[in-house]
Each structure stands twice: as C-alpha cells, then as structure tokens.
Amino acid sequence: MHRPLFRLSVLALALGVCGSAMAATHGEVAAREMRHVATAFKGRMAGTETEQATAAYLAKAFKKMGYQVGEQPFTSSFEYEKADKSKVKREVKSINVIATKPGMDGKVVIVGAHFDSRTPKKDSDIGKIGGPKLEGLDDNASGVGMLLEIADQLKKTKTQHTIKFVAFGAEELGLLGSKDYVARMSDSDKQNVIAMVNMDSLITGDKMYFHAGKETVAKDAKAGFVRDRALAIAKKLGIAADTNPGLDKEYPKGTGCCSDQESFDEAGMPVLAVEATNWEIGDKDGYEQTTNKAIKDGMSWHRPDVDNVKNLETIFPQRVEQRSRDFSRILTPLVIELAGGKAK
C-alpha cells in the first residue's frame, strides 16, 4: 500500500505453485499463497533479485493454471532523501506480470495487486521502514494471494469478456508499475475496460472495505457500480463490509486512495479498491488500520517487526483464513459477473 504516512540471489527458491484441476475451497489458495509469498520472498523491493524471483514465481503459478502469461519490464525512477536532507533521483528496473484469460469480445476486466514490498526512500528509513527483512504479509502478500485465488477460482470458467490478472511491480515507489501499464494503453484499450479491481492490504485492518475511484465518480456517479455490486454481494452473503464513510473531506464518501487503482481511475476507467483498514479512527483518513493495542500506532504498513506472518497471526489468530475466505466469496462472483461469465 502506497500510503504516504511513512513520508541477494534467491532465484533458487523452490517454485511450488498453486492450482489443481478443480478450483479450491474459497480462500484456500489465498491463505496458502499469502504466507508463502511473505516468507519465501521477504524484502521483495523494486529492482532487486528478490522482486524478480517473485515475478518468476507468479508467472509460473499463472502458467500452471493455464493462463497466457506475459511480462512487462519497465524502467523508472524515484526520489531518495539522504541523511543531509538532499534529494537524488534513483533509477529502478521493475516488472509487471500479466496473465490473460481471453474472452469472446474486446471488453476487458483487470484484476490487480502489487507484489513489491516497501523500499526505503530515505536514509532515516534504513532498518526501520521497508528493507530486506520486511515480509509484508499484509502489504501486500495478502493482495497477491487473493489475486492467485481469484485466478484459480476462474481458471475453468468461460467468460464473454477478457480478464487480465496483473501483478504490479514498484507500487511502493509511487504506483510505478500501474502507471507504466496505463501509459502503454491506447485510448481504445481504456475504453474497453469494464472495470479495474485492485487488492491491497487485506489482513491488519479492522474492517473490509470496497471503494470506487475518486476521479471517475466525481464525473459520473454511475462509475461506482462495481463498489455497489461488491457491497450487495457481501450483504447477501452476510459478510460485514463497508465503504469509506467520508469523515475526512479530502477522501469523499465511497472512494478510496493510495494504491494502483488510482492510475486507472485518473485515466477515466471505473475501479474498485479492495482493502482492510479503519476509516473511523485516528484522522479518519484510512491511514490507521486497527484499534488493536498490540499494533503500535494502529498501523503495520512497511514495518518489518510488525508486518510479518508470525506477528500478525499471533495478534489475529485465524484472520488470514477468515479474510481469504470472505474476500474470495465476494470477489469471485463479482469478477465472474463483470466478465460476463456464469457462476458454478
């Protein structure tokens, strides 16, 4: 999650992947993959060998499910602050992994999550924020696990429209992967996007949220249709879910912020931002995730000592299984519906 609050060779790792002939029980793949990505690929900072190894793992996982897989390398830069407060530009080479499920027409549904973990952006971050020891279970192995979950659930489902599952690189450096993805889209490509669904930070937060895009709904309230359908599905299933209540005027009611969906929203495509946090505490801007006192300052984002499997599963027993199951039960039928398929 690119919240602005906190303003090696590993290629030989085992590449065991998910997927079987039949779709697994809701949440089974997500829970397993969340833990695996967090622990096997900790410190998956943009531009590192670990990030490249994570990309290779995801590509292999998608291929095993039967998807067409492509990779989109890109080069960008980010601003780094040195100890003397001077700022320099640092180049970064990252990659997006794209798995495609072809449809029968030109319409497209994009489902995405970033797979990089936080890169320190200043000298004072070293050893405290991000870095090689950060597992990032919440941010964002959780979103990656759900990405693989939905792909696994839908691998045998026929759909009218194409689905693209995209694992974005370098989100933590300013949404660089999603910005590069959108920059390569033609006007026709953008017009053919039915919706973009983005998943980021699904574990630590007190509540499950579904938001629309700030820019698109400001122009046309109907652009919030994906959010409304997600909430309706959750209600029908008896799963507690909400949207931003709009208690901070900078974040309008029903809209989200601070992750890869913003790149698509700003380009005029309807989006759904999926997250777990708490928009009713602290400054009511979604930055504080939980009231649980075991989480200092209410946030796990970017902190190696907090956002790891052992710690979060000790604080929140069974949370990984619960969120994996509940988000899958909502998002799987939602994506099938968006893509013009039929639920089994």
Task: Explain what this protein looks like in three dimensions.
The protein has 344 residues and is of the alpha/beta class. 33% of the residues lie in helices and 18% in strands. The protein contains 10 helices and 7 strands. A 7-stranded mixed sheet has the order 1-2-4-3-5-7-6, sandwiched between helices. α7 packs across α10 (319-338). The radius of gyration is 18 Å and the shape is globular. 54% of the residues are buried. Mean pLDDT is 94; it is low at 5-22.
Put the structure in a nutshell.
The chain is an alpha/beta fold. It contains 10 helices and 7 strands.
Low-confidence stretches: 5-22
Query: What do the pLDDT scores average to?
Result: 94
First-residue to last-residue Cα separation: 33 Å
Helix content: 25-40%
Query: Looking at the structure, what is the overall shape?
Result: globular
Q: Which value, in Å, is the CA radius of gyration? A: 18 Å
Number of strands: 7
Q: Order of strands across the widest beta sheet?
A: 1-2-4-3-5-7-6
Counting copies of identical and different chains, the oligomeric state is: single chain
**What is the N-to-C order of secondary-structure elements (H for helix, E for strand)?**
HHEEEHEHHEEHHHEHH
Counting DSSP H or I runs of 4 or more residues, the number of helices is: 10
Summarize the main sheet.
Answer: 7 strands, mixed
